[in-house]
Write a structure and sequence with these properties.
The complex is a heterotrimer. Chain A is mostly helical. Chain A contains 17 helices and six strands. In chain A, helix 7 packs antiparallel against helix 10 and helix 12 crosses helix 13. The two termini of chain A are about 25 Å apart. Chain B has a single domain, classed as ABC transporter involved in vitamin B12 uptake, BtuC. Chain B is built from 14 helices and two strands, in the order ααααββαααααααααα. In chain B, a hairpin with a 2-residue loop joins strand 1 and strand 2. Chain B is globular and about 75 Å long. In chain C, the strands form two sheets. Chain C has a six-stranded mixed beta sheet with strand order 6-7-8-3-9-10, sandwiched between helices. In chain C, strands 2-1-4-5 form a four-stranded antiparallel beta sheet, with helices on one face. Chain C is globular. The longest helix of chain C is centred in the middle third of the chain and has 14 residues. In chain C, helix 6 links the parallel strand 7 and strand 8. Helices cover about 35% and strands about 20% of the residues of chain C. Chain C has a single domain, classed as Rossmann fold (3-Layer(aba) Sandwich). Classes of the chains: A mainly alpha, B mainly alpha, C alpha/beta. Chains A and C meet through helix 8, helix 9 and helix 10 of A and helix 2, helix 3 and helix 4 of C.
Chain lengths: ~450, ~325, ~260
């Protein structure tokens, strides 16, 4: 598909500009939609369906969070306020609609949540966005605590300790869909997920979205090109609050119960932060990965090991230190390698790194599991099974064995890592060379 | 409200406020020096309390008062050297995130080693019992000890910064780290010492706060957000502001918890009856003591609206 | 803000401008009146307050007292974005661009407000033909059209300085402040850059802080000499060269005496 563009109001003749359809983008979005539709057919268990539903709305929430963090450079410790308040307004709306007081069909409830999120973002955001950087982070923490504490003070609205419950099957069915069965809820969530993801992606290509990036990069300079930096942040905050509220509304529909202690807590905000960062704040799709990891960790990993929060903390720490762009950046770096045909050179190194790291981690995990076992399950005796092997938490041999495995693994890892760094550096140089050569043409 | 209640509450409020200041001053120092907001600051507070608990179980409280902060100092310095320094080049947000990760980690490790419930970290004999009593209400020795240690700490830190050579280097490195390094001082080492020092101060606060108040895994988070409020309300980077804000919030919280009045009482006093049907009843019936937990955060919001630089703010960011 | 003097002949005026930081007065009563389209070079010894003047004019700091008048309107105390919207734009001594955006994006950001797009999120950037055209023109003007998609942080120093100028003129401001635009450049780069500046600021009022006298005499219609926070001379280059006060300030009174004695 070609398009012809002309320079305006000048005498140069129109020139031919080859502008093919952006096929790649089209393919990716179709793939995304297909995956959303097909996922429950691939993973059939009810546990899988619960997880997929949670992933669906967490994608919306993490993407909305990244609007602040990755696109705007605003580190917020209080995003759960907007998802939580969106959830609460949604649940009250559902209860009122169920009693016939307001004619809102279930499919529009997430929008109610979104409007609530935007509303509270308008009110609280005005104060929050007065400052930037570290101060902003602390203000979001303070306001997060404020709202979380308020939840206990107004049991009429927040339901006290027990929270508020609802029933998502009410009123007339939507073209025959009652949204009672979990699979129907999943598809509702999936539909919203697709639309919201597309909307948030579109936002990145608007003037406000781009100026938001400029504010992130150089807030002072933005003032000198005519923009009120604070107002840019405020508007972005409101839009992020809107999508956060939609996510909260979907969570309400999914669980049919909301409690203040859980939905508004600073711990939950911390979770959004942690996983969005882990997924990768510097690329648009990073938070999608983060949302998937969040559900996998909180549902599966927590079953596997009592020490999962410890592992999470360690992984997060290492990510911040060694890969601050998150998993998305690791993927993109390797895609860049693949584009220049250098990826094949590294796969042996990757294998070696993965292998030695695994050995080391296993050794460490043994020790951690044994410690946790001693602390939490002491009454069950000193033996703990770990990956099929029985370890005696009180015996010296188990401990020595674990330490030995860990040290060997990490020692070898360090050797491999140094070799890898040398290789990586060489390859990066080669790629830079290629780029310069291409530019000079 | 009787005079004895007022005096005792005043003293309680001041001692709590001084404890808050011990914590917020370390935070402010690290922030002023390195631009890093140490999210794990109150985690070091918690570690101080737990280490003191274990150490005092072995050699008694008074050696623990010295040893526990030293251990925390070592941990803080090690963290700066191996983690924070590496992240420094990525900017302030990753620095904040790495301290956030650390706070997560410390919480888990504490729960792992010492369990999830309160530990019986008790007062030594010399600090038990009241210092004096006023008409039957007592002011405990432990709280006055907190005040004493806080004031001593304040004075010695101030003396260190303004009267010693290392203090001079620290103050210089505050503004012009590259220049100070060019003059031959080992600025990274200075940063490491300052971070460790800030952590040790928090640890010291933990040693005395842990047995005066309570030692449990939630102690870091509960006082953490208040400390951040103190620092913002006082004005980022201002020690004097942190002092003022700490006392203010300490006093307000102490008094508020004891007051059981609500707007309903106020209305009744002017002759207006308030019932459940009255508009806004859920809000009006709240007593001050019920609202007490959110008062610091309300302060924060008010300060941000009316005086965004903070009470005595110096640093614009 | 009511216009003081809607039919003023001056594009930019400074009237007894003063600025103190704490107890230290940095700008001690600066006076200047620049006609539209004039090219003024601001020179003076280090620490005289030249950058501070720029900061006062562009709104980075508010003056302690005195007036800054832009196209007849008093702008002292206004926020930088308010001043920018009234037609004044500045560049920085230390390159101040958007490092993670491409060259094209940098320039496009510079034009968005002036084209009225403000805070909209309901239109796509790719559809804003006038903004995209203008950004393209700017790119060609500053000779960076070959590096359209290069991230700003990956440009060479001189290219970044060019981009800086590009962003500064993007919004169509008619009063341009350039703070040491050729700082850190080699001789040949400087010459090329001055040509560029002349081209892109054609017809606009220009104030530039400069240290290189060759540049100053080649570029400026008038020179303003700033010493100790005051404008001690404002005249054509030849007259300023001969001005005794200026010679004293720069070269010391001994030399001035010598010259006076030698005539």
């Amino acid at each position: 598909m070609n398009s012809i563009s002309t320079t305006s109001a000048s005498n140069t003749p129109p020139y031919y500009r080859f502008k093919p359809w952006n096929v790649g983008r089209f393919v990716i979005w179709t793939l995304f939609a297909v995956m959303l539709i097909v996922a429950p057919m691939l993973f059939r268990s009810s546990l899988a369906l619960t997880m997929l539903s949670q992933i669906g709305y967490l994608i919306i929430i993490c993407l909305s969070y990244n609007m602040l963090l990755g696109q705007g450079g605003m580190l917020s410790f209080g995003h759960a306020v907007y998802t939580g308040l969106g959830s609460f307004i949604a649940i009250h709306a559902m209860n009122m609609a169920g009693k016939g007081e307001v004619p809102i069909p279930l499919v529009l409830i997430p929008l109610v949540g979104g409007l609530a999120g935007a509303f509270f973002a308008i009110i609280l955001g005005f104060v929050t966005t007065k400052k930037s950087g570290t101060t902003f982070a602390m203000i979001t923490l303070g306001i997060g605590e404020l709202v979380a504490s308020m939840a206990l003070m107004f049991p009429e609205f927040f339901g006290g300790e027990g929270g508020i419950t609802t029933d998502r099957v009410y009123g007339k069915s939507f073209f025959g869909i009652s949204f009672g069965p979990a699979i129907q809820v999943y598809y509702l969530i999936a539909a919203y997920c697709f639309v919201c993801t597309a909307a948030m992606f579109a936002f990145t290509g608007t003037p406000l979205g781009r100026i938001l990036n400029a504010v992130r990069d150089n807030p002072e300079r933005v003032e000198f090109i005519g923009y009120n930096t604070q107002r840019v942040r405020y508007f972005a905050f409101i839009i992020a609050g809107f999508f956060a509220g939609i996510g909260g509304g979907l969570a309400t529909i999914n669980f049919e119960i909301i409690t203040g202690a859980d939905s508004l807590s600073v711990v939950r905000s911390g979770g959004y932060l942690l996983f969005t960062f882990l997924g990768g704040a510097t690329f648009f799709f990073g938070p999608i990965i983060g949302a998937v990891l969040l559900v996998l960790a909180s549902v599966l990993l927590s079953e596997l090991s009592k020490a999962w929060l410890l592992y999470l903390g360690l992984v997060f720490l290492f990510m911040v230190m060694y890969a601050p762009g998150g998993i998305a950046s690791l993927i993109m770096m390797n895609l860049r390698l693949a584009k220049y045909g250098k990826l094949s050179q590294l796969w042996t190194s990757y294998l070696a790194l993965a292998g030695t790291a695994l050995v080391g981690v296993l050794g460490a995990a043994c020790m951690i599991e044994m410690t946790y076992h001693l602390q939490l399950n002491a009454a069950l005796g000193p033996e703990v099974t770990f990956l099929g092997a029985t370890l005696n938490a009180k015996s010296l041999t188990s401990w020595f064995g674990a330490i030995f495995v860990m040290l060997t693994g990490f020692g070898l890892f360090e050797l491999c890592r140094r070799q890898f760094v040398r290789q990586w550096g060489r390859i990066q140089e080669e790629i830079e060379h290629e780029i310069k050569r291409a530019e000079a043409l | 409200m009787n005079p004895e209640f007022f005096v005792i509450s005043l003293l309680n409020g001041v001692s709590y406020g001084l404890l808050l200041f011990m914590l917020s001053s370390g935070l402010t120092l690290i922030f002023s020096m390195m631009g890093v907001l140490n999210f794990a600051h109150t985690s070091f507070y918690m570690l101080g309390a737990y280490f003191a608990f274990t150490i005092s179980g072995v050699v008694g409280f008074w050696p623990a008062l010295v040893l526990a902060p030293l251990v925390v100092f070592a941990l803080g310095a090690a963290f700066e050297r191996y983690c924070l320094r590496r992240v420094h080049k990525f900017g302030h947000v990753p620095e904040l995130l790495v301290t956030f990760g650390l706070s997560y980690l410390i919480l888990e490790v504490v729960q792992l080693v010492w369990g999830r419930s309160t530990v019986p970290y008790g007062l030594p004999e010399q600090l038990q019992g009241p210092l004096f009593s006023l008409y039957g209400t007592q002011f405990p020795k432990s709280r006055s000890f907190v005040m004493l240690v806080a004031l001593l700490m304040l004075v010695s830190v101030w003396l260190l910064l303004t009267r010693t050579r290392i203090g001079l280097v620290i103050q210089a490195a505050l503004k012009y780290p590259e220049m100070v390094e060019a003059l031959g001082h080992n600025v990274p080492r200075v940063f490491m010492l300052v971070f460790g020092g800030g952590a040790a101060l928090a640890g010291l606060a933990g040693v005395i706060g842990g047995n005066t108040y309570v030692t449990e895994p939630a102690m870091a988070a509960s006082v953490g957000s208040i400390i951040f409020v103190v620092v913002v309300v006082g004005g980022m980077g201002s020690l004097a502001g942190a002092f003022l804000a700490s006392l203010l919030i300490g006093l307000v919280q102490t008094f508020a918890v004891a007051l059981d009045y609500s707007m309903v009482h106020v209305f009744k006093a002017v002759g207006v009856a308030v019932t459940e049907q009255t508009f806004g009843y859920p809000l009006l019936k709240l007593t001050i003591s019920q609202v007490a937990p959110i008062l610091p955060y309300l302060f924060l919001v008010l300060i941000l609206i009316f005086r965004p630089k903070g009470l005595l703010g110096t640093r614009e960011d | 803000m009511a216009a003081d003097n809607a039919t003023t002949p001056y594009a930019l005026e400074l009237r007894d401008l003063r600025k103190s930081f704490g107890k230290t007065e940095i700008i001690r009563g600066a006076n200047l009146a620049v006609a539209p389209g004039e090219r003024v070079a601001i020179i003076g010894p280090n620490g005289a307050g030249k950058s501070t003047l720029f900061n006062l004019i562009s709104g980075r700091f508010a003056p302690t007292s005195g007036d800054v008048i832009l196209n007849g309107q008093r702008i002292n105390g206004m926020a930088p974005y308010e001043i920018n919207r009234r037609g004044l734009s500045r560049s920085f001594q230390i390159t101040n661009i958007f490092p993670k955006l491409s060259v094209f994006e940098n320039l496009r950001c510079g034009v968005l407000w002036s084209m009225g797009y403000k805070y909209t999120f309901l239109r796509f950037l790719s559809g804003l033909h006038d903004a995209n055209e203008r950004a393209k023109q700017l790119m060609e003007m500053i000779k960076l059209d070959k590096k359209r998609d290069t991230l700003a942080m990956n440009l060479t120093y001189a290219e970044q300085r060019a981009l800086e100028i590009g962003i500064t003129i993007a919004g169509g401001a008619n009063v341009i402040l350039l703070d040491e635009p050729t700082a850190g450049m080699s001789k040949s780069e400087t010459t090329r850059f001055i040509h560029l500046i002349k081209e892109v600021t054609e017809g606009r009022t220009l104030l530039t802080v400069e240290h290189d006298m060759g540049v100053v005499f080649g570029l400026a219609d008038k020179i303003a000499v700033v010493v100790y926070g005051e404008v001690i001379a404002f005249d054509t280059p030849e007259k300023v060269r001969a001005n005794q006060r200026v010679q004293e300030a720069y070269l010391g009174s001994v030399v001035a005496d010598q010259q006076a004695g030698g005539h």
